[in-house]
Amino acid sequence: MKLTRDAVTKLVLPEGKAEHFEWDPDLPGFGVRLRGDFKRWVVQYRFGTNQRRESLGDVRKVTIEDARKIARHHFAQVELGTGPAADKAKAKATARRPSTPCRRCPSSTSPPRSADPTL
Questions:
Q1: What separation in angstroms does the CA of 51 have from each of 29, 47, 74?
Q2: Packed helices 84-96 and 64-80: angle between N→C axes, nearest 10 degrees
Q3: For residues 97 and 79, what is the distance between their CA atoms, to the nearest angstrom?
Q4: How far is Cα 47 from Cα 53, in angstroms, rounded to an integer?
Q5: Is 80 helix (H, G, I), strand (E, B) or coil?
Q6: Among candidates 38, 32, 87, 36, which has minimal Cα distance to 64?
Q7: Three-state DSSP class for 58?
């Protein structure tokens, strides 16, 4: 089934299933995940020996053109040897680092606090 805006809005979860995927024949690895009342764009790819599946967003909020563009970008990163998941992990690790030194960190240059609470 070719994925179009109208075709995706008409998709319903088959009876008795908790989850269902509809894949786009024009862009292998790109599709729609139906789970409960939700429909989300997904990409599925193999990076090394691992198979990965990532959500690209709700079909009501992300247009099909944007989802295809993001999917192509993911597939290009995989072909170049840099997985999209690695980029996400790197961004998460960078976001967790404090920008200012912590008072409790041993590398901090501030003098230690006095143990006396009245000071």
A1: 11, 6, 13
A2: 90
A3: 30
A4: 10
A5: helix
A6: 32
A7: strand
The CA distance from 75 to 31, in Å, is: 13
Predicted confidence (pLDDT) per residue in 22-50, tens digit: 999 999 999 999 998 899 999 999 887 88
| CA–CA distance, 89 with 83 (Å, rounded to integer) | 10
Assess contact for 30 and 43: CB atoms under 8 A.
yes
Q: What are phi and psi of 50, to 5 degrees?
A: -100, 140
Decide if pLDDT at 91 tops 90. no
Q: Which residue segments constitute the domains of the chain, with CATH numbers given? A: 5-79 (3.30.160.390)
